[in-house]
Amino acid sequence: MTPRARGNPIVAIDGPVGAGKSTVARAVAQRLRFRYVDTGAMYRSVAWAALQRGISLSDERAVTALAQSLQIDFVTDPEGQRILVDGVDVTDLIRTPQVSDGASVVSVYPGVREAMVAVQRRLGADGGVVMEGRDIGTVVFPDAEIKVFLDASLDERARRRFEELRARGAGADLESVRRAEEERDRRDRTRSHSPLRAASDAVVIDSTGIPADEVAAGIVQLVQRRLRA
Ligand code: DC
């Protein structure tokens, strides 16, 4: 029997930016003692490396070759999960607005997606994982045992993102954060390769006005019910 069949499911959590995926996915992984994989951090890493090396984000061939050559690793330390790109800790470096924007540009390229999806499938192969992204339930693991599509209103998503940026000391105003979210959403939903959408068998959760720990508890219950079924 494969580890997945022995009760180590894959929990796929997809949704738009600011829906609370990271907080929720991390909490679900912690409660279930599963591994947590943030796939957005991988696309961010590609954008960061391209910017770092002076590769134009509009140069699809160069960005694709870069994505295929990068070694992206997740490591867990006492402070949480860190992401390394060719051995460099980029955990904090990939959270700037410039990298956010760049990630949504490079994630449109099919070759970049294929390279990232191959790594994601390896990371999730044994199950016991909570994987968060845009296409986990539709493309990366269409056979995931549990699929959640986490959504929230644009106003709430912009407000959460704004608070997050402010907490990190980054200067931002709510209206420009809202516009940037709207633009990233549009790109994610309308790209021809693996657009953001809910899988037909996903449980759709609207988290508007619901605290993250409540959403996480609901997903944990869902996983436990499926495991018992
Ligand atoms: O979740 P995030 O904001 O860290 O994601 C950064 C960008 O990467 C976002 O614009 C969408 C893209 N992305 C993707 O295309 N597919 C994924 N599985 C995860 C993220």
UniProtKB/TrEMBL annotation:
Ranges of biased composition (kind: Basic and acidic residues): 176-188
Main location: cytoplasm
GO terms (BP aspect): nucleobase-containing small molecule interconversion; pyrimidine nucleotide metabolic process
Any GO MF annotation of the entry: dCMP kinase activity
Xref: Pfam families: Cytidylate_kin
Record's catalysed reaction(s): dCMP + ATP = dCDP + ADP; CMP + ATP = CDP + ADP
EC class (word): transferase
Family affiliation: Belongs to the cytidylate kinase family. Type 1 subfamily.
Name of the protein in question: Cytidylate kinase
Organism: Candidatus Segetimicrobium genomatis
